[in-house]
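Milestone 3.1: sequence recovery, worked example.
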């Protein structure tokens, strides 16, 4: 299907927007703001754009194509910046080891439409040196109309930084040693390794970036976000797609309007939120806050304070040695403890309608406080290896509370277990089984992130094929 976008951002508006990027790198700019900016600008030319923007026009849907190429070259030096602004079209950036920038603009127009040749001629390119590097501008003449397909391919020095903007199309870039700032109103973004910080914004396409040495800001109106290793902080938002990260070392704020969130390694504070998807986290060393409106939550290695909340999904924790607060409205909570919780702290696991199962090493000092509100129908079941005080007390609702409490191995930090209409089980854990489970789950997460990145790259590469 062909999609069309009306956009003709003037040079001044593009400069103003890119200036704002550098002033507020990690400040969230919602995709709707981007769309409002573009919607308020004068329109001139229809272009094939959005998620199908890099695909070759389907000749079965229209007549033969008229084609035209524009080429240019401009000298430059290493360590500078290219500022590329297009009214419309796809952008492809390749890197090279040379002291110049060269570019090719490939144009296609439907020969069956009126004034197709004039439409090809209406697109112009200008390039000149600036104090920061090179400015490249591609635009159509005012008053031009029709279907025009544009792809701009630019070869730049690898040490360059990128500032790229298009009113409608995909943006694909190689590895760069500088920073990268990318803006498209609706296409996909696919970036290689970035040695500096990166800011990637699209009104609705997918965002894929490999490793980022600086901080990363990524925002899409509905596509997926997939990243490699991010050495700095990360602020990622999508209105409905999935978020997948191999690792993040700085503070991470991840949010999606309904997709899943997957993070293999987190080295600092992690905040993840989705209105209905699942959240999966591998190894963590800092504070973790995760909230979902209905999906499950899994954290493989909990070694920092953790606060987890789901409205109806299950929560699964494989290795816990830090304070954890977990609550679910209806799901099962399973937690494997590997050692005493770091003092001073308390663990709280609560499910309204689901079971709670905790695995405790036989020699771990801990104090258990377990309670089932509807004790007439549900129970607290304790492994024979543990000696706890069991009670069955009258409750205010006329029923009975089922309780198990007391210190194990001399006592330690308190583990509060609460469920309204579920069972609670306290089980002596098998250390060998737990280590095996941990390794299996980390391997599964690693494979999942790797395959998702590979599949998305292949999908976007297929869309970009001529």
């Amino acid at each position: 299907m062909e999609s069309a976008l009306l956009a003709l951002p003037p040079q001044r508006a593009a400069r103003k927007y890119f200036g704002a990027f550098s002033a507020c790198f990690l400040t969230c700019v919602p995709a709707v703001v981007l769309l409002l900016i573009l919607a308020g600008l004068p329109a001139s030319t229809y272009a094939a754009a959005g998620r199908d923007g890099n695909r070759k026009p389907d000749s079965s849907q229209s007549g033969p194509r008229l084609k035209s190429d524009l080429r240019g070259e401009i000298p430059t030096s290493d360590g500078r910046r290219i500022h590329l602004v297009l009214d419309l079209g796809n952008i492809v950036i390749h890197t090279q080891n040379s002291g110049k920038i060269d570019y090719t603009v490939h144009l296609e127009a439907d020969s069956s439409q009126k004034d197709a040749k004039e439409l090809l001629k209406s697109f112009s390119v200008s390039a000149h040196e600036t104090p920061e590097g090179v400015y490249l501008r591609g635009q159509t003449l005012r008053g031009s109309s029709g279907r025009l397909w544009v792809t701009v391919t630019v070869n730049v020095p690898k040490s360059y930084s990128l500032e790229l903007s298009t009113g409608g199309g995909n943006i694909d870039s190689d590895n760069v040693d500088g920073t990268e700032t990318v803006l498209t109103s609706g296409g996909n973004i696919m970036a290689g390794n970035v040695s500096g910080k990166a800011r990637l914004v699209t009104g609705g396409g997918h965002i894929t970036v490999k490793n980022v040495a600086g901080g990363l800001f990524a925002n899409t109106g509905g596509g997926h976000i997939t990243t490699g290793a991010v050495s700095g902080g990360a602020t990622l938002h999508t209105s409905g797609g999935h978020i997948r990260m191999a690792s993040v070392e700085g503070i991470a704020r991840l949010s999606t309007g309904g997709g899943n969130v997957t993070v293999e390694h987190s080295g600092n504070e992690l905040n993840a939120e989705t209105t209905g998807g699942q959240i999966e986290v591998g190894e963590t060393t800092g504070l973790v806050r995760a909230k979902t409106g209905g999906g499950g939550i899994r954290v493989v290695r909990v070694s920092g304070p953790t606060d987890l909340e789901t409205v109806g999904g299950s929560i699964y924790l494989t290795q816990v040695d830090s304070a954890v607060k977990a609550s679910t409205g209806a799901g099962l909570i399973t937690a494997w403890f590997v050692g005493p919780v770091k003092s001073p702290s308390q663990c709280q696991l609560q499910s309204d309608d689901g079971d709670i199962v905790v695995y405790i090493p036989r020699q771990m000092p801990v104090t258990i406080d377990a309670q089932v509100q509807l004790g007439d129908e549900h129970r607290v079941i304790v492994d024979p290896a543990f000696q706890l005080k069991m009670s069955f007390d009258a409750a205010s609702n006329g029923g009975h509370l089922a309780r198990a409490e007391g210190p194990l191995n001399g006592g330690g930090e308190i583990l509060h277990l609460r469920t309204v209409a579920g069972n609670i089980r306290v089980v002596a854990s098998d250390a060998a089984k737990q280590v095996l489970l941990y390794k299996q789950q980390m391997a599964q997460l690693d494979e999942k992130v790797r395959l998702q990145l590979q599949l998305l790259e292949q999908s976007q590469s297929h869309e970009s094929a001529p």
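The radius of gyration is 28 Å. Helices lie at 11-23, 31-39, 116-121, 431-464.
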